[in-house]
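$ ./design --mode recover --in tokens.txt
reading tokens...
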């Protein structure tokens, strides 16, 4: 009888352990479902901050360029900042080449896919708008009259082509070295872009005046 009771107790305990296990699995599933959006948002903000750090490095490069050549870069689009490497102001390394494009965009999606990073900006004549996920100032139509200059004069920004570099914001570097993030929700609330609009377009047709001075070419 005692042996039968022990077996019954062990069986009951095993069944209870299985219930506990299922409960733990259920709790973990609920937590993962609840936390996944938060993790995604955190990664998004990290990408935005990494992009802003890139833009600040580009500004440092432009300061060195001005010291070296006594003028600011004067090409348009990607060539505007590609001059930093093609004219050897910034050393042509993989690290520096990758600083000239938004870290949130997959490198393999650019026209440089399959190329060595040191080839990307070495020859300015070969550089096209597809070589970077940044847009540079359109110096053909909006010449940079003074550098360093005004915090109202944009230099480089996310290109958002064909989709947003960052889901929530578009970063832009200005001639005084500041970096501004245009928050999409704020632009919607202010009526600058439609509530249904998913992309903040960059270039002459942009709804944001500063971004009209940018070129994707």
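writing sequence...
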């Amino acid at each position: 009888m005692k042996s039968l009771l022990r077996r019954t107790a062990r069986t009951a305990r095993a069944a209870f352990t299985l219930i506990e296990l299922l409960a733990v699995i259920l709790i973990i599933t609920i937590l993962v479902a609840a936390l996944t959006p938060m993790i995604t948002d955190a990664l998004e903000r990290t990408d935005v901050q990494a992009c802003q750090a890139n833009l600040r490095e580009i500004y440092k490069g432009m300061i060195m360029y001005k010291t070296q050549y006594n003028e600011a870069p004067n090409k348009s689009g990607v060539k505007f900042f590609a001059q930093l490497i093609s004219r050897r102001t910034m050393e042509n390394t993989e690290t520096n080449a990758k600083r000239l494009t938004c870290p949130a965009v997959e490198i393999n999606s650019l026209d440089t896919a399959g190329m060595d990073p040191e080839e990307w900006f070495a020859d300015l004549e070969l550089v096209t708008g597809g070589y970077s996920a940044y847009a540079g100032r359109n110096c053909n139509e909006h010449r940079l009259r003074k550098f360093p200059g005004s915090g109202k004069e944009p230099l480089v920004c996310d290109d958002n082509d064909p989709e947003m570099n960052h889901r929530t914001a578009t970063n832009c570097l200005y001639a005084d070295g500041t970096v501004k993030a245009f928050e999409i929700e704020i632009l919607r609330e202010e009526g600058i872009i439609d509530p249904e609009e998913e992309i903040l377009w960059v270039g002459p047709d942009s709804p944001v005046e500063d971004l009209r001075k940018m070129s994707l070419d």
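exit 0
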